[in-house]
C-alpha cells in the first residue's frame, strides 16, 4: 500500500503535472481533513481567551501571551516538520505524519479545556500555555505535510485552485461547527466547567475522525515527486528565499492574518458586550458559512476569468469595506430605530434592525472571506510549482512549513494585540462568568473587530502589489 505509493511517486522522472483532472473523490478525501484542522485552528483562537478570562481569571494581556508563546515555537517547528517530511516522503510517505498529528492534536485539544480549578490565575495561564504548546506541536506534524500535499496533487494551477475550493468548503463547515456551535454546546451542557468539558470531547472526536479520514484516504494517491533540495534546512531555506513571488505572498498573508486573528479573538466579546446578543452567534456563523459555501463556484470561476491575483484583491477590498462598518454597532441595538423588533425567530427571539444588518454583514463577509483565504493558499502552491519548473526540485514541505509557521505566528500575535488593546481600554477579567464592562472597554472590542483588521488587510494589499509570477495575470 505505502510501497505502491512510493513506486508511483519515485517513478515520476520530472516535476510535471500528473495527467488529467484530479478525481473528485481524491479532492474530497483531501479536503475533509480541513474540517477537523479548522476546528482546532479556530476554536482555541476564539474560545481560549474567553475561557481564560471568564473561567480561570487570567488577565486579558496574559491570555494573549499564553496563545503567543507556543506559536513562537512553531516558527521553528513548522519548517523542521516540513523538512523532516520531505526527507521521509520517499521512504514512508506523508501518511505517518498525518496519523500521528491527528491523534496528538485531538488529545491536546481535549486537555486544553479539561481543567477549570487551578490554585491561581498565573498557574492556570502556565498550564494552558504548556498544554497549548504540546497540542500546537502535534497540529504542526499534521498540518504542514497536509498543506504540502496540495502542491503535489497536480501541476495544473486551475486544478490546484479546485482542490483549494473544496478544501475551503470543509474549512467553512469547520468554522460553522468550531465557532458557531461552541457556545450553544457549552450552554446545552449546563455552562461552566461541565459545558466546556463536553464541548472539548465532542470537538476532539470530530477532529480525530476527519483528520484520520484524510490520512487513510490519500495513502494510495499518486503525488508529484520532484526530488528534494540537498543539504541542511538552512540550505533549503536559502532556496525558498530566492523565490520572490513566494516571499511576497508570505508577507502579504502574514499581515492579513494578524488582522484576522485579532478579530477572531474578540468575536465572542463583540456579541456578548457590544451587540449584547450572544444568542446571535450561531445564526451569524450560519449565515456567513452558507454564503461562503454558495460563493465557492465564484472563486472557482473568477480566477480563470481575471487571474488569481486580481480576484484576491477584489475579495480583500470588499471584505475590508464591510468589516470597517462594525464601528457603527450600537450596544444592545439601542440606536435610533435599531432596538425595535421587526421579526421573531422560530424560538420566539425578537430580531431588530441591527440584528438584520449584522446578518447582512455575515453574508457579504462569508462570500469574500473564503475567497481571499483560499486564493492565498492556491497562489502559494503556484509558487511551489514555479520553483519546480525553474530548478526541477522543490521541497514542498519546507515551503508549506514556513507558510504554516507564519500563519500560526500571525494567529498568535492577533490575541496579543487584542489583549493589549482590551487592557488599554479597561477590560476587566473575571472568574466563573462574564463581568460588566465600561463603555471604553466595549469601544476597544469594537475597534479590534473593525478598524484594526480592515487596516491590516489594506496594508497586506500594499505588499501584494509586488507579487509577480511568470505566466500569471498581472494585478493591475
Describe it for me?
By secondary structure, this protein is mainly α. The protein has a single domain (23-218, 232-464), classed as Growth Hormone, Chain: A, CATH 1.20.1250.20. The protein is built from 17 helices and two strands. The chain has a two-stranded antiparallel sheet. Helix 7 packs antiparallel against helix 14 (353-391) and helix 12 crosses helix 14. The termini are far apart.
Top keywords for this entry?
single chain; 476 residues; mainly alpha; Growth Hormone, Chain: A; two-stranded antiparallel sheet; 17 helices; 2 strands; disordered N terminus
**Strands of the largest sheet, in order across it?**
1-2
* The CATH C-level class name: Mainly Alpha
Named CATH architecture: Up-down Bundle
What does the overall shape look like? Answer: globular
Class from secondary-structure proportions: mainly alpha
Helix content: over 70%
Strand-helix topology:
Elements: H1 2-10, H2 24-31, H3 33-55, H4 60-92, H5 95-112, H6 121-152, H7 157-180, H8 182-188, H9 192-217, H10 233-241, H11 244-274, H12 280-306, H13 308-323, E1 341-344, E2 350-352, H14 353-391, H15 396-424, H16 439-449, H17 451-464
Antiparallel strand pairs: 1-2
Amino acid at each position: 500500500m505505502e510501497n505502491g505509493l512510493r513506486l508511483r511517486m519515485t517513478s515520476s522522472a520530472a516535476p510535471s503535472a500528473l495527467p488529467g483532472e484530479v478525481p473528485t473523490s481524491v479532492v474530497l478525501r483531501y479536503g475533509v481533513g480541513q474540517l477537523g484542522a479548522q476546528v482546532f485552528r479556530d476554536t482555541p483562537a476564539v474560545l481560549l481567551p474567553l475561557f481564560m478570562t471568564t473561567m480561570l481569571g487570567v488577565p486579558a494581556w496574559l491570555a494573549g501571551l499564553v496563545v503567543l508563546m507556543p506559536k513562537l515555537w512553531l516558527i521553528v517547528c513548522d519548517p523542521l516538520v516540513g523538512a523532516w517530511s520531505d526527507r521521509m516522503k520517499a521512504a514512508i510517505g506523508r501518511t505517518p505524519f498525518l496519523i500521528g498529528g491527528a491523534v496528538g492534536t485531538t488529545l491536546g485539544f481535549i486537555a486544553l479545556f479539561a481543567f477549570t480549578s487551578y490554585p491561581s490565575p498565573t498557574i492556570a495561564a502556565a498550564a494552558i500555555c504548556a498544554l497549548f504548546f504540546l497540542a500546537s506541536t502535534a497540529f504542526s506534524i499534521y498540518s504542514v505535510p497536509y498543506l504540502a500535499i496540495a502542491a503535489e496533487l497536480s501541476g495544473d494551477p486551475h486544478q490546484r485552485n479546485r482542490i483549494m475550493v473544496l478544501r475551503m468548503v470543509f474549512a467553512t463547515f469547520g468554522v460553522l461547527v468550531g465557532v458557531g456551535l461552541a457556545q450553544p454546546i457549552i450552554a446545552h451542557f449546563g455552562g461552566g466547567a461541565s459545558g466546556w468539558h463536553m464541548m472539548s470531547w465532542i470537538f476532539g472526536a470530530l477532529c480525530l475522525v476527519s483528520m484520520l479520514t484524510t490520512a487513510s484516504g490519500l495513502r494510495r494517491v499518486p503525488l508529484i515527486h520532484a526530488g528534494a533540495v540537498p543539504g541542511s534546512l538552512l540550505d533549503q531555506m536559502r532556496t525558498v528565499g530566492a523565490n520572490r513571488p513566494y516571499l511576497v505572498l508570505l508577507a502579504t498573508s502574514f499581515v492579513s492574518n494578524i488582522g484576522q486573528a485579532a478579530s477572531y479573538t474578540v468575536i465572542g466579546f463583540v456579541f456578548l458586550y457590544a451587540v449584547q446578543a450572544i444568542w446571535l452567534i450561531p445564526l451569524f456563523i450560519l449565515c456567513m458559512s452558507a454564503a461562503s459555501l454558495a460563493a465557492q463556484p465564484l472563486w472557482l470561476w473568477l480566477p480563470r476569468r481575471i487571474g488569481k491575483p486580481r480576484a484576491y484583491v477584489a475579495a480583500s477590498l470588499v471584505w475590508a469595506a464591510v468589516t470597517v462598518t462594525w464601528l457603527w454597532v450600537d450596544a444592545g441595538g439601542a440606536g435610533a430605530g435599531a432596538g425595535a423588533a421587526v421579526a421573531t425567530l422560530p424560538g420566539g427571539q425578537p430580531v431588530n434592525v441591527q440584528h438584520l444588518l449584522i446578518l447582512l454583514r455575515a453574508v457579504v463577509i462569508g462570500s469574500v472571506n473564503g475567497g481571499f483565504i483560499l486564493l492565498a493558499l492556491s497562489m502559494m502552491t503556484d509558487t511551489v510549482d514555479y520553483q519546480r519548473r525553474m530548478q526541477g526540485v522543490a521541497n514542498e514541505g519546507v515551503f508549506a512549513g514556513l507558510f504554516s509557521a507564519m500563519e500560526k505566528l500571525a494567529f498568535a500575535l492577533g490575541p496579543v494585540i487584542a489583549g493589549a488593546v482590551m487592557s488599554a481600554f479597561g477590560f476587566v477579567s473575571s472568574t466563573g462568568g462574564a463581568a460588566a464592562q465600561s463603555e471604553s472597554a466595549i469601544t476597544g472590542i469594537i475597534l479590534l473587530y473593525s478598524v484594526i483588521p480592515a487596516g491590516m488587510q489594506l496594508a497586506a494589499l500594499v505588499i501584494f502589489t509586488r507579487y509577480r509570477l511568470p505566466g500569471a495575470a498581472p494585478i493591475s
